[in-house]
Amino acid sequence: MNLSLLKLICETPGAPGHENRIREIVQKEVKSLVDEVSIDKMGNLTAIRRGKDRTKVMAAAHMDEIGFIVTHIDDKGFLRFHTLGGFDPKTLTAQRVIVHGKEDVVGVMGSKPIHLMTPEERNKAPQIQDYFIDLGLPKAKVNKIISVGDPVTRQRELIEMGNCVNCKSIDNRVSVFILIEALRKLKGIFPMISMPVSRSRKRSDCGAHRWPHIILSLISASTSTPPSPLILPEHVRRKW
User: Fold this and answer.
1) pLDDT higher than 90, residue 77
2) Which string of b and e fits 5-19 if b means at least 16 CB within 10 Å?
3) Model confidence over 50-62: pLDDT tens digits?
4) How far is CA 189 from CA 101, 131, 233, in A?
């Protein structure tokens, strides 16, 4: 497996509406493998390889990643934010992130320390509004490079872990990786790499004007092998 390519695809930032960097990488990888590459006004990248018959096969994946957006800069330079996509708030503590302002700035997510919480606060599930981003910079410096509306992505490198790999955004970047690698091996396929997950209906619509006969949508799924007591609901287990 081409781990260096998977690493590059997973680590490259691309919050919803800000997929320029990952799109450029995908375009570079596929342009020599296909007959035509185009980018529409929504930012979807479509790569076409023409086969020997008239059957059109479209394979689609989304290239964005869940992230955050800056909503406020307080008087001490700390950032408040909102999510772009679904997050479990309890996973955000001490998460290292990159704020994409006039320049990329690394920050750390924080919240009220547990030793300062009341008993009621300790027993309450954390909420997104409980968190802030600390850039380690004074407000004057923050104001020069960061603005409300700037996107934020997680900072996490791909590592090998036993027989597996671990990285941020491996959902759904692994599907983008599969499409690129499939292009190296298959002929007559009509691949489409699209965005974003938060606008899934429009994602599926963006290639429909080409009238493919077969559509393959690549997306990751929940694992069926979590350790006890993490038991999948019965309706999910039945699928496996």
Assistant:
1) yes
2) ebbbbbbbbbbbbbb
3) 877 778 888 889 8
4) 38, 45, 37
Query: What is the rounded CA–CA span in Å between residue 138 and residue 101?
Result: 16
Helices (H) and strands (E) in the chain, counts: 7, 13
Amino acid in position 63: M
Residue 200 pLDDT: 41
Taking the CA of residue 223 as centre, how many other CA atoms within 13 Å lie in the half-sphere pointing to its CB? 6
Phi then psi for residue 43, to 5 deg, are 95, 5
Q: Tell me how far CA of residue 49 lies from CA of 9, 25, 192, in angstroms.
A: 22, 18, 10
> Quick one: DSSP state of residue 230?
-
What is the DSSP track for 212-235?
A: -SEEEE------S-PPTT-PPPHH
| Dist. CA 82–CA 152, nearest whole Å | 10
Q: What pTM was computed for the model?
A: 0.83
* Tokens matching residue 94: 């001490």
- Long-range pairs, 112-118, Cβ under 8 A, ≥24: none
Q: For residue 106, which amino acid is it?
A: V
